[in-house]
Input
Amino acid sequence: MFIELLDGLRCIADHPQIPLVAAIMRRDDRFVVQGILGCPTCRREYRIEGGVALFTDANDAVVTSSPPAERDDEGAMRIGAFLAVSDGVTIALTGEWARYATELAELVGLRAYAVNPPRPIGESERVGALHSSNRLPFTDGSLRGVAIGEPGWSVDELRLAARALSPGGRMVAPAASPVPVELEEIARDERWWIGEKRGPLVALHRR
Output
């Protein structure tokens, strides 16, 4: 994983956020090939193997998605439109959406985390791969978009994902998934819903 992409990662445990500490065992220029990300608060450790960050316990198997659906030639443009992405933003694509991370990053000029991709992806300065459970390991407010590409996420797991969105950021998830209260549903079809994170309320003062 490109070293600068590590800055947006956090511990998946439920405690106040604090930056993870990276111990780098092997690197290739500015890419971390092997290492450990440690949480100073709860002492959890997450491995980086082959450039992929593993947010699983040491004895857990690597998380895999369900068998991938047929690739959509317009998938990158579709998810980019769903999330209303623009140059310079950072997003996370999980499951079947993760396969479009590299293409979308090149098309738009954004940074993308590919979470539980159905197949290995080529990492770059703009794209980093990681495996995790349904608890996304991203700093609060650090993402402009999150696409959930597999069913089975609980409302608590989706609320944690929503925390990683900045105000005005969007989430896409399967139609059967619950919409977190932090999001306003703005579109839905038979497969997906799109939600947008509400910004903070601004007090109005009469002069």
Summary: The longest helix spans residues 75-83. Residues 191 and 198 are 23 Å apart (CA to CA).
